[in-house]
Structure formats: structure tokens, C-alpha cells
Design a protein that fits this description.
The protein is built from 2 helices and no strands. With 139 residues, the chain is mainly α. It has one domain (9-138).
């Protein structure tokens, strides 16, 4: 083979290699652009996640505070209710005693309204009656 033919072969190989290099550079640029795009998306998503997490933590703290205030209010109302029940029980007891003395002759005799079943009911008896009525309605 002569030198001219060898030169043409080498030139063809170099052109093929240059074309391949250009193609690989193009692929490399495309991959770099994709990687940068994905990295930006990831950073944006992480930023959104941090923001959402911060908002949820603030909302959780607010709701926890609201829950605690409602819990305190419930406890206060329960204490008030228990106090009123106790007062009602004492007043009921006093009224029973008054009716017992007035209609029952002092020591339980006389068959007045308290003993006849048509008189004043105790708070406990009213609760039992209410529970029995609820049970009967559920049947």
C-alpha cells in the first residue's frame, strides 16, 4: 500500500473519531443538563417539604394548645358540675328531712309523700330512672 492510501485511511479514522467525539460531547451536555434540572427539582422539593413541615409543626402546636385549653375548660366544668351535684344532693337531703319531719311524724312513720313513692326522688334515684328509661328505649 502506498502512503497516500494510508493517509486516506487515517484521515477517515480521524474523521470517524471526531464525529464520535462530537456525538459523545452532545450526549454529555444533555446528561449534564438533565442532572442539573433534577438537582434543582430535588432542591425545590426539599424546600417545599421543609416549609410544609414547618407549617404542620406550627399547626400541631396551635391545635395542641387549643386541645389543652379545651381540656382545662372541661375539667373546670366537670368540677363545677360535681359541685352543683353535691349542692343538689345536700338540698335534696334537707328537703327530704323537712318533708319527713312535716309529713312523716319525725321518725319515719305516717306514710307521707316520701314513703309513698310519689314524693321527692333523690338524685341517685333520678339517675337510675333515667338509665332504666334509656335501656328500655334501646330494646
Amino acid at each position: 500500500m502506498n502512503i497516500g492510501a494510508q493517509m486516506k485511511d487515517f484521515i477517515k479514522i480521524i474523521e470517524t473519531q471526531n464525529n464520535r467525539l462530537i456525538e459523545l460531547d452532545s450526549v454529555n451536555e444533555d446528561l449534564e443538563k438533565r442532572l442539573e434540572f433534577q438537582a434543582k427539582n430535588k432542591m425545590n422539593l426539599e424546600s417545599q417539604l421543609a416549609s410544609q413541615e414547618r407549617l404542620w409543626n406550627e399547626r400541631f402546636a396551635a391545635l395542641s394548645g387549643e386541645r389543652d385549653s379545651w381540656k382545662d375548660l372541661l375539667e373546670k366544668e366537670c368540677r363545677k358540675t360535681d359541685h352543683f351535684k353535691e349542692q343538689l344532693f345536700r338540698k335534696d337531703k334537707e328537703l327530704r328531712k323537712i318533708f319527713q319531719q312535716k309529713y312523716g311524724g319525725g321518725a319515719g312513720g305516717g306514710g307521707g309523700p316520701v314513703e309513698g313513692g310519689g314524693g321527692i326522688k333523690s338524685v341517685e334515684q333520678m339517675r337510675k330512672d333515667k338509665q332504666n328509661a334509656a335501656n328500655n328505649n334501646n330494646r
